[in-house]
Write a structure and sequence with these properties.
single chain; 354 residues; mainly beta; 4 helices; 24 strands; elongated
């Protein structure tokens, strides 16, 4: 099997060639890693500011720095670049003079076009087929990146932005519904852990002073994790910890100690891993349900790492954010039978609750 076609352009973004002799490592998402490394044969020379992309997919971006590499027997070219999401993440939305925020409302396509023009990116990007989608009036975070701003707009619509570039024209920013996928845990590459904890419920706070003059404050948490000065758990049910803040007066000690004890009120520790099978988009939720215990955990996709070798199809790795106890309930499909992302929608999915 050969790699998918990789198209490349000149600095005016006109397609000038295609190759299957390449290796690509690419990452995109909301963790700040939106870059790629492209290795080609020594005979393929790409210019800084040209584009490289897999047509009809979200994979691609702009060449930032050409280079080369060799091992004494052969040499090849290595190009570093920024993905579509990364380009948007490099531009920040600054409010107009005299305004505290940028406010948007109305047709989604018009909003996307306005923001692209505002940042001078309409040379490369254009709204996809997203006209007719209405956005309620909302303020964008001050000085957020264009990528962050778009994600916040799409989040209000329970959607996520997608990117797609065909063999001609501009890179289109589209829209796909955010999906929630639930697996029963039978997929060999998915997994989860749930560990129930018994947290500290008595914090002995030591403040300023020495010996009998030292400030000592006792703080307590009840069985539900509520922090107060009243003790409700004793004996074997009591778990103590010392908190040393030797420069604190009593009021400051109470405030900081309360914050510390609240942080310790962790009753369950969870982790979840998305399966290699299937494709997910940034912001989609993935959960695993243990049918035996009824427990489940879930997390959102924050980064997607893609590897394309010369001899095969793209391999995806999905990086999840912090896991939470419980599984997503809307739009829940068995993970072994779903494929979505890039606006493709869900195929052959069966709802868990059918």
């Amino acid at each position: 099997m050969t790699a998918p076609r990789l198209l490349y352009t000149d600095t005016s973004f006109r397609d000038i060639g295609v190759t299957r002799r390449y290796s690509l490592k690419l990452s995109f998402g909301c963790r700040g890693n939106n870059s790629f490394s492209l290795s080609t044969g020594a005979d393929l020379e790409l210019s800084k500011r040209s584009l490289a992309y897999l047509p009809g997919t979200e994979l691609g971006g702009i060449i930032r720095g050409p280079g080369s590499s060799g091992d004494g027997r052969s040499s090849h070219r290595v190009y570093m670049g920024t993905t579509w999401a990364g380009i948007l993440d490099e531009h920040f939305l600054c409010p107009d003079e005299g305004a505290s925020h940028i406010t948007v409302s109305g047709d989604l396509a018009n909003i996307v076009e306005m923001l692209l023009c505002r940042e001078g990116l309409d040379e490369l990007f254009a709204p996809g087929d997203i006209s007719g989608i209405s956005v309620p009036a909302m303020q964008l975070d001050r000085f957020c990146s264009l990528y962050e701003g778009l994600r916040s707009i799409y989040r209000v619509l329970d959607c996520r932005p997608t990117f797609r570039r065909e063999s001609a024209g501009k890179t289109l920013i589209g829209c796909a519904s955010r999906q929630s996928v639930v697996s029963d845990g039978t997929n060999a590459t998915s997994g989860f852990t749930i560990q129930r904890l018994y947290p500290v419920n008595h914090l002995v706070c030591l403040g300023k002073g020495e010996g009998v003059d030292r400030i000592v404050v006792h703080l307590f948490a009840n069985a539900q994790g509520f922090v107060s000065r009243v003790q409700t758990l004793f004996g074997l049910d009591e778990v103590e910890r010392k908190y040393d803040f030797s420069t604190a007066e009593e009021d400051d000690l109470i405030e900081r100690g309360t914050e510390k004890l609240k942080e310790l009120q962790k009753f369950v520790e969870v982790d979840v891993k998305a399966p290699d099978a299937g494709k997910y988009g940034i912001g989609d939720a993935f959960g695993v349900l243990d049918k035996v215990t009824g427990d489940g955990v879930s997390a959102h996709v924050e980064q997607i790492d893609v590897t394309v070798e010369k001899s095969g199809k793209p391999r995806y790795a999905f990086i999840l954010g912090d896991a939470e106890f419980g599984v997503p309930t809307p739009k829940a499909y068995e993970a072994a039978s779903v494929f979505f992302g890039g606006g493709a929608g869900v195929q052959q999915g069966r709802r868990i609750d059918d």
